[in-house]
Design a protein that fits this description.
- The chain is α+β, with helices and mostly antiparallel strands.
- The protein has two domains: 80 residues, Immunoglobulins (Immunoglobulin-like, Sandwich); 112 residues, no CATH class.
């Protein structure tokens, strides 16, 4: 079964075996924020000869990402309690809020000369954070959204972002978990070792050299902090 995304709809159901005229089922939905909603499901004989009955709840919208819980309670013949956990991913098409993102998935596709990879929006958001790290001491004019007003600088931030996103993807660390910088580690009895470079010379740099170059050519990096 494909993992649902926020905004998808779902119809909960439950098969009860055995059952008879005394069997009743109720359903409670719990959203990721803890909100609980009772439902009154309906029943029909699924395979009467096999003694199986299907109870179906009302369709509901997965309005938020996270863990949704369907709690079934069956009384009478076939009495039981069952909990079904539905893990919901964020809407992949949703616009990110509260963060500057310097490139779009269209920019990413043009850079790759191919369709962008799965999770491109998140990858660009992580790459934009890396670009912000590189811009730590930069001084430039921005608009109300914190984006550069100079078209040359805007293009440099765009290019640096897609370069950084592709660089992380090449390291196997598309979403900024720093997995590409891991040289050795151990969790319990599991040992992990990863060479940082093809020659095993240590972890690769966090920032793509070509991304830094794009920013430098636009005059955005290479300066120390200023004090007034």
């Amino acid at each position: 079964m494909t993992q649902p995304d926020a905004g998808d709809w779902r119809v909960p159901d439950l098969q009860v075996t055995p059952y008879d005229g005394t069997t009743e089922a109720t359903l409670e939905l719990e959203a990721p924020d803890g909100t609980k909603t009772p439902q009154t499901p309906t029943s029909q004989d699924d395979v009467p000869a096999a003694g199986t009955q299907t109870w179906t709840g009302q369709a509901y919208e997965l309005t938020a990402p996270g863990e949704w819980i369907e709690r079934w309670t069956v009384s009478g013949t076939g009495a039981s309690k069952q909990r079904r956990v539905v893990l919901v991913a964020p809407d992949p098409a949703a616009q990110l809020t509260g963060q500057r993102v310097y490139a779009t998935t269209a920019d990413y596709a043009l850079h790759l000369r191919a369709a962008p990879p799965t999770g491109a929006r998140r990858a660009l958001a992580e790459a934009s954070r890396d670009v912000d790290d590189m811009l730590l001491t930069a001084v430039y004019v921005v608009d109300d959204d914190g984006l550069p007003t100079d078209p040359v600088q805007a293009a440099a931030l765009r290019d640096a972002t897609v370069i950084q996103a592709d660089y992380r993807r090449g390291l196997g660390d598309q979403f900024g978990r720093d997995a590409g910088r891991l040289v050795a580690g151990q969790i319990g009895s599991v040992s992990i070792t990863r060479s940082g470079t093809p020659g095993g010379q240590g972890a690769p740099p966090r920032h793509a050299p070509k991304a830094w170059q794009a920013l430098q050519q636009a005059g955005l990096v290479g300066y120390g902090p200023m004090a007034w």
